[in-house]
UniProtKB/TrEMBL annotation:
Segments passing through the bilayer: 6-26, 38-56, 62-79
InterPro entries: DoxX
Localization terms from the record: Membrane
Keywords: Membrane, Transmembrane, Transmembrane helix
GO annotation, cellular component aspect: membrane
Pfam families, per database record: DoxX_2
Full protein name: DoxX family membrane protein
Domain of life: Bacteria
Topological relation to the membrane, as annotated: Multi-pass membrane protein
Length: 103
C-alpha cells in the first residue's frame, strides 16, 4: 500500500460514511441532481467497496478503477448542475485514481 492509495481510500471512506448517514444537506444534493433516495446508499456502498479494495493486495487496481468510474459520475453530476467550482476536488481524485489504474 502506498501513501496515495491511503489518501484516496480515506477520502472515499469519509464520503461513504457521510453518504450512509445521509444528513439533510446530502439528501438534498442527491435530490437536486435528480437521483432517487436509494441511490445515495448505493454510492456509499460503492465508495466503501472501492476503498476496501485499495487496501487489498492484488485488488488495488480494481478498487481504483471502481472509484475512478464513480468519480466520473460525480463530475458528470456537477457538470449537469453547472457546479463548476465543486469539480476541483473530484478532479484531483480522478488524476490520482487514473495514475493508480495506469500504474
Amino acid at each position: 500500500m502506498n501513501y496515495v492509495n491511503l489518501i484516496i481510500a480515506f477520502a472515499f471512506l469519509a464520503a461513504a460514511i457521510v453518504n450512509l448517514i445521509g444528513p439533510p444537506a446530502i439528501r438534498a444534493e442527491f435530490a437536486k441532481w435528480g437521483y432517487p433516495g436509494w441511490f445515495r446508499v448505493t454510492v456509499a456502498t460503492v465508495e466503501l467497496v472501492g476503498s476496501i479494495l485499495l487496501f487489498a493486495p492484488g485488488a488495488q487496481r480494481l478498487g481504483a478503477l471502481i472509484l475512478l468510474v464513480l468519480t466520473l459520475g460525480i463530475l458528470a453530476s456537477f457538470a449537469r448542475s453547472k457546479e463548476w467550482m465543486r469539480m476541483q476536488y473530484p478532479l484531483v481524485l480522478l488524476f490520482l485514481l487514473a495514475t493508480n489504474v495506469a500504474a
